[in-house]
Amino acid sequence: MPEMFEVDRVDRIADILFGVATAKGLIGYDPLAKRVDTRPDFLSQPLDKVCRRAFDRGEPLWSALVVSSSSGRPSSGSYGLARKMRPEYDALSDDELWAQERERCYVAGS
């Protein structure tokens, strides 16, 4: 049963992030965690699954839309995952990578 719950959470996160992309916005870890009934520090694994599934489908890495309330930026793990999945990001700065992936999200949401 826990696996089913995890899949449901991954689907809900993906749906929420698509909505955020449609609005060309960003969402904080805290508000996202509240919407899927978990703690912000428990989001890394479901976000990883959301991104891997999205990548396999040719979609953007939706985690680019999830930011820390203190920095206004994604976690460092988000950049590492993006570079692992998209080799073209290796030579880019974090800012450039984030801007490109965020734009991919916004285009997919429009």
Describe this structure in words.
It is a single chain. With 110 residues, the chain is mostly helical. The chain is 61% helix and 4% strand. It is built from five helices and two strands. It has a two-stranded parallel ribbon with strand order 1-2. α1 (2-22) packs across α3, α1 (2-22) crosses α5 and α3 runs parallel beside α4 (76-85). The longest helix is centred in the first third of the chain and has 21 residues, at 2-22. It is globular and about 35 Å long. The protein starts with a helix and ends with a helix. The mean pLDDT is 92.
Helix/strand-derived category reads mainly alpha
Percent of residues in beta strands = under 5%
Distance separating the two termini: 35 Å
Number of helices: 5
Radius of gyration: 13 Å
Helical amount: 55-70%
- Enumerate the strands of the largest sheet in spatial order, edge to edge or round the barrel: 1-2
Overall mean confidence score, pLDDT:
92
Extract low-pLDDT stretches: none
Helix and strand layout, with pairings?
Elements: H1 2-22, E1 27-28, H2 29-35, H3 44-56, E2 66-67, H4 76-85, H5 94-109
Parallel strand pairs: 1-2
Helix pairs in contact: 1-3, 1-5, 3-4
